[in-house]
Amino acid sequence: MTRSVSFVVVLLLLCSVGFATETASLLDQKVPATRAYPSNVLPNPQLIPQNVWCPGDHPLSSELDEFIGDTLSVGNTYYSEQHNCSNGRNIAFTTGTVMINNAPETNVAFFSWMDKPTANTDVHIAFNRAFVDGDGSLQVEHAQEGYRVDSGTIGAYTTLAFDNTNLIGFPIYHGGNTEDDMNNILAYEWNVYPGTFIETDVAQVGDDPQFWPVAVFDSQNSILHMVTTVNPPDPNDDRVQPLPIYYSRHAYDPATQTFTVGQQTLLCEWQRNISADIAVSEDGSRVAVAATISRDYFEHPGDITEWTQYNQDLWVYVSEDGGLNWNDPLDLTEFIPPNMDLLPDSVAANRDTLRAYCDANVYFDRDEKMHVAFTTSGFYQLHGTINVKASWIYHWDEVNDVFTLAVDGYQYCYDPGSWHRAADRPSMYQDPATGVLYMVYQQIGLNVLSGDSLNPLYATNTLDYSQSGFGNAEVFVTASPPGDYNGLLWAKGINLTNTRYNASTQGAATGEARCESSPTISLYNDGPYLNTFFIMDYEGGNANQQEGAFTQCNAVWLRSAKEDILASFDEWVVNYPIHIDSTQFWYDDHNYDWEEANGFWRWDVDEQEGDLPERFELEQNFPNPFNPETRIAFTLHRAGQVKLSVYDLLGRQVAVLTNGIMNSGRHEITFNGADLASGVYFYKLESGNMTSMKRMVLLK
Fold first, then answer.
1. How far apart are CA 458 and CA 449, in angstroms?
2. pLDDT, tens digit, 9 for 90 and up, residues 259-284
3. Which of 554, 500, 494 has its CA nearest to residue 530?
4. Looking at per-residue confidence, does 688 or 441 come out higher?
5. What is the dihedral of CA 682, 686, 691, 693, to 10 degrees?
6. Which of 163, 87, 72 is nearest to 428 (CA)?
């Protein structure tokens, strides 16, 4: 016992040295407090106990046919909705080497989530890791539902920041012992005892508590960037309270495992939801925060009772010096308000009938281009009505500066539940190898008996809902091709989970439904797989909001082959103007024809650099499809160095057919694909500053 006490004293001394605080220029800044586990859980990690069986206790395995990819349950929770609005990230992935159970493992995923051990207990923060074993199977580090992170009475609404250099996950959350001492907390795993976490409170401005932290980590400069939202001082009157957004940055020293807690910067004082998301560029120079902000602040100045969570614009806040200083915020959407001069035609007078809802995802790609995805839904201001059963996810980036429709959620669905729309919660990632921009999202209530029609007239027999009346959600993925069309064209999303309830008489009973919620994608997905985290609920709706019953949910790692995803796309989403006057609207010159423009790889359609000589020509292979041989012909205007190579869907070179000096004229080369798997391949001709590429199909 004495040894345990002295051990804790040493730990606390180490912590007190490490958590310095930057000089504060803001008033009422609280002094951060360092937390550590009590002595009765040291030196052993605190484990979340195995939950007892309840309706919905369904083990997941890689044998589930409905998933595109492999699944692994990394823990359980009775708290199905991990986020009320924007999701942030709850998963990180690395191909580096991580010590797990005293053994080096590669291809490791990190997870944090809210664990509610039973239907009647408070929530806490859980953390776990999993990895790909040598035989390709998915293995969890701790089968007893992971490690508990927080040491207080409550720990809630976690996101996971990740140091991609030192391979450290940082669960970020708000917690404490009572409502009065709730604060945002940075936690990190103590390297002496894996599974043991040290916490530090984040200094905050003012007396009102700040909750719902979202954080990202700048691995090059070891800076954790965080955005938080003030909780309403009167929770019983939260519809008439502003929710200011604060930003803070915290320096981390990996050598000593200590943070220097930074001061806070007020970004916005009139937010009406908890939609703020944050991103940092790869070199750490650019930081961006996106949030949906109430327009009522301007339309009803001084009358806070008129502020709503429906009449909102999408705003972006950008720092070009790593979060030290912030540019003037940018209202991206600037929805057109009603025009009373057009009355009595109230339909025309409404003007724009879309508004940003309560989620956003901001992301910097590897070229440091900023992307933002956000959910919109119908808002008819003069009629005083909104539409929760249809929604549209739009994309914007700072290079094209247009709005393009990534997800068309115009469909009938059952009640999506609190804080949801028919399609929402976008989460983006760009593959550095191919340039493909992926977006994972959640979609509710697709038609089962009538196919996938988005026309509500044909969805009268939809049964993918729970008997409580709430729709069951699925995890979908869409993607945008690399090159000139990146961010402009989006493939119609495919269902990654595909657990639709299919019955002819009624919806799913409690414990039989499958509702996947809170999907997030890892910021790092190097290699051939896409890594996604979601919660598998066995009842539609949000039980914490009295929607349906509590069930024991699975926290799930889904690992999907990028090649399988890309091969499943077969249709473009047709863009729809976000504004009634078509401001910032883009339309495809090929009229969204999938086949005419060579399918998903739009940039592969005779894309040629420089001025093409009259007789520089790459012909379509013949036969096509082929098995296993095909002939590729091309014509050169002049002699020179020529390379003809073959690539797979992931952009990997699989064959070089010729690479040397060739004379002018027409040439023909035979390609044998006997050693390759069936699928789509591309052959590329290069000569001087000219290139041309075409697609071919190997069908065995």
1. 9
2. 999 989 999 987 888 899 999 999 99
3. 494
4. 441
5. -10
6. 87
Cα–Cα distance measured from residue 621 to residue 618, given in angstroms and rounded to the nearest whole number:
9
Look up tokens 């091969």; give the residue: 567
Provide the strand spans (E) within 593-698.
Answer: 617-618, 629-636, 640-647, 653-662, 665-672, 679-687, 690-698
Radius of gyration for the alpha carbons in the chain, expressed in angstroms and rounded: 26
DSSP code of residue 603: G
CA-CA distances (angstroms) from residue 478 to 11, 286, 585?
47, 26, 20
pTM, two decimals, is 0.80
Which residues are within 8 A (CB) of 550 and not within 5 positions of it... i.e. 6 or more apart?
78, 116, 119, 539, 543
Per-residue pLDDT tens for 65-123?
457 889 999 999 999 999 989 999 999 999 999 999 889 999 999 999 999 998 888 99
Report how far residue 360's alpha carbon sits from residue 315's, in angstroms, rounded to the nearest whole number.
Answer: 10
**pLDDT greater at residue 633 or residue 238:** 633
Match 């009102």 to its residue by tokens: 208
Please classify residue 661 by burial: count the beta carbons closer than 10 Å to its beta carbon, then call 0-12 exposed, 13-18 middle and 19+ buried: exposed
Helix (H, G, I), strand (E, B) or coil at 313: strand
Min mean pLDDT across 46-55, 66-75, 112-121, 617-626 is at 46-55
* Helix, strand counts (H, E) of the chain: 4, 40
To which residue do tokens 């070179």 refer? 653
Interatomic CA distance for residues 90 and 81, integer angstroms: 13
- DSSP codes, 139-168: EES-TTT-EE---SSEEEEEEEEEETTTTE
**pLDDT of 228 strictly over 70:** yes
CA pseudo-torsion sign 382, 384, 385, 386: positive
State how far the alpha carbon of 84 is from the alpha carbons of 87, 242, 518, 581, in Å: 8, 17, 9, 33
